[in-house]
């Protein structure tokens, strides 16, 4: 059925011969995947125009020598020209042969000459995939070998160059900014819940496995020996005195409430007032007298407690149990988990602030490293060894993947577009081959003809 009957059946509903109109046409089959093709940009089009100009020149030169050959032969036979016509004809004939031979060779690279199925022509379209494999193997063997890579990197003197580059303040600022950006990006990508879980588990596990009592004991012993605890005792005494002054009635009421029921109330009150006054006097004297006996008693208690924390098994066990109980509380776990949020916020703020201590220290460290790396030969050798080892490892481990990038890319190219692209880049030079072939052929033909005439051939 032709297009018109199909269209009529669709419109009228009866022309197709099926009641109610023709069935809708079947969807077209999916097109096979196309191979990758080059995009010809303005530069490529300019190159192709140059190739066409050179083709015209080479072809024109071929036509010129052909015309010279015809004229020389005509002059030789029709006009009875002298020996010079034979020399010209021989040169022109050899020039035609050279031009045609080079035209065939150049054309055979990209297509079949005159469309004829001549073997070993259209080399690039038909051998494209094989050329890609060969190119990949060539690159892998000659450019990606460990010896070549290591020798090339060693000749570059990367250590000294890197040091001199980092020593420049502008370059150090740039690296610092890039590191800050990378740090912010990494902290943004990380999920807070995952990091909090890891940090919480790490802190808890570390705290549970490490015994803290001996460390606390040594610290407390040093603090007491240096008199560092006295400020704390002064503060406690001052606060206790202020509290007693403010809550004297509470002390009196507490003493009265604990008295026997058979004692008179005025006696209970007198006793309460007396207790309050003695307690206030004691705290006041302890606050104002650095050599008070109670302070000496506190010093002895702290020294003994510090010794027990280091050597007494029972005391150390009690501290460890207390530590475990504190760590197990939900409030403590929440504080540990929330520490990540505070640290993350602090790091991001420092990374964003160009004048932050973090960025200033990183910048100074980079410049110091650069200055040292630029002058220290041993450090240069060490850094270059690290870089060479890392690059050689990547190259030797992933050589097949690197070369497969070449072979797979070439295999994905469209054959026709590949030929056109390559011809656009090297076609002008190939046309010069045709021109050179014409000239060299003419000179060779002239030389052969001259030698032959000289030997009487």
Automatic annotation (TrEMBL):
UniProt keyword Transmembrane, yes or no: yes
Pfam families: DUF445
Record's compositionally biased regions (Gly residues): 9-20
Region (Disordered): 1-35
Key words, A-Z: Membrane, Transmembrane, Transmembrane helix
Record bears the keyword Signal: no
Sequence ranges of Pro residues compositional bias: 22-33
Coiled coil: none
Transmembrane segments: 56-72, 84-110, 432-451
Source species, domain of life: Bacteria
Protein name: DUF445 domain-containing protein
Species: Streptomyces erythrochromogenes
């Amino acid at each position: 059925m032709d297009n018109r009957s199909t269209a009529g059946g669709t419109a009228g509903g009866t022309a197709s011969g099926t009641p109610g109109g023709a069935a809708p046409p079947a969807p077209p089959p999916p097109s096979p995947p196309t191979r990758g093709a080059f995009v010809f940009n303005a530069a490529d089009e300019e190159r192709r125009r140059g190739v066409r100009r050179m083709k015209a020149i080479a072809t024109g030169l071929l036509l010129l020598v052909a015309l010279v050959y015809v004229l020389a032969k005509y002059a030789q036979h029709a006009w009875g020209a002298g020996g010079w016509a034979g020399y010209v004809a021989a040169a022109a004939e050899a020039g035609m042969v050279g031009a045609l031979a080079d035209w065939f060779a150049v054309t055979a690279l990209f297509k079949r000459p005159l469309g004829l199925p001549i073997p070993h022509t259209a080399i690039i379209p038909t051998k494209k995939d094989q050329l890609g494999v060969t190119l990949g193997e060539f690159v892998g063997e000659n450019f990606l070998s460990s010896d070549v890579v290591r020798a090339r990197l060693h000749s570059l003197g990367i250590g000294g160059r890197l040091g001199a580059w980092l020593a420049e303040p502008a370059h150090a600022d740039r690296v610092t900014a890039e590191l800050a950006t990378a740090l912010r990006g990494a902290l943004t990508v990380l999920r807070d819940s995952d990091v909090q879980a890891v940090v919480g588990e790490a802190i808890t596990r570390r705290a549970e496995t490490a015994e803290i009592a001996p460390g606390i004991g040594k610290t407390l012993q040093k603090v007491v020996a240096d008199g560092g605890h006295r400020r704390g005792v002064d503060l406690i005494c001052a606060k206790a005195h202020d509290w007693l002054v403010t809550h004297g009635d509470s002390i009196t009421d507490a003493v009265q409430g604990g008295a026997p029921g058979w004692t008179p109330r005025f006696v209970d009150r007198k006793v309460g007032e007396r207790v309050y006054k003695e307690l206030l006097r004691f705290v006041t004297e302890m606050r104002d007298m650095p050599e008070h006996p109670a302070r000496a008693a506190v010093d002895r208690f702290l020294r003994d407690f510090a010794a027990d924390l280091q050597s007494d098994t029972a005391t150390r066990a009690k501290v460890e149990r207390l530590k475990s109980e504190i760590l197990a509380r939900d409030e403590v776990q929440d504080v540990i988990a929330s520490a990540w949020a505070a640290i993350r916020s602090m790091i991001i703020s420092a990374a964003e602030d160009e004048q932050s201590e973090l960025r200033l220290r990183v910048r100074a460290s980079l410049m110091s490293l650069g200055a040292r790396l630029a002058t220290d030969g041993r450090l240069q050798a060490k850094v270059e060894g690290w870089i060479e080892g890392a690059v050689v490892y990547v190259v030797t481990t992933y050589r097949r993947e690197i070369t497969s990038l070449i072979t797979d890319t070439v295999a994905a190219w469209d054959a026709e577009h590949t030929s056109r692209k390559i011809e656009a880049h090297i076609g002008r030079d190939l046309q010069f081959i045709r021109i050179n072939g014409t000239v060299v052929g003419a000179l060779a033909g002239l030389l052969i003809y001259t030698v032959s005439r000289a030997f009487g051939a």
